[in-house]
């Protein structure tokens, strides 16, 4: 039975539906391909994508696997009303990577992880942000350099050897 369209569960279902469609379309997949990848019938997938069933964590995980996307970012996209987030993170799996790294850190240092001050996390994330910005600056510079070299090569005079062959 569908929830009242104004309830939080109905809004959540609509948001999940939007996210699933965005990811599926970004991957250039049709519903039948996703259903097959999830191991469910086409009708089951269509109901899932349309938000006609309750929130199903297992189906989100199977959807992420079938679409090579990130289940954690799908959950976060629903939780924080950011439907573009799963598309942003579907290739680098940043949300799941953060979870895995946090889990591994917890395995190493245990419950003391809860005592890490928020300021340290902010500082660490800012350092990561700086490294990401540097990466893109290097990539942009490299692309610009490539275009300049390619254009220069294109405008070079033809080889004299080509004239000798005729």
Protein architecture, described:
The protein is mainly α. Helix content is 72%, strand content 0%. The chain is built from 9 helices and no strands. Helix 1 runs antiparallel to helix 5, helix 2 packs across helix 3 and helix 2 packs across helix 4. The longest helix is centred in the last third of the chain and has 37 residues. It is flat, with a radius of gyration of 24 Å. The mean pLDDT is 92.
Helix and strand topology:
Blueprint: H1 8-26, H2 31-38, H3 42-50, H4 57-67, H5 71-79, H6 85-88, H7 94-109, H8 118-154, H9 160-165
Helix pairs in contact: 1-5, 2-3, 2-4, 4-5, 5-7
User: Number of DSSP helices?
Assistant: 9
Q: Which percent band covers the strand fraction?
A: under 5%
Mean of pLDDT: 92
Order of helices and strands: HHHHHHHHH
Fraction of helical residues: over 70%
Radius of gyration using CA atoms only: 24 Å
Distance between the termini: 80 Å
Q: How many strand units?
A: 0
Largest sheet: none
Which class best fits the helix and strand makeup?
Answer: mainly alpha
Concise structural overview:
This protein has nine helices and no strands. The protein has 166 residues and is mainly α.
Spell out the key features of this protein.
166 residues; mainly alpha; 0% strand; single chain; 9 helices
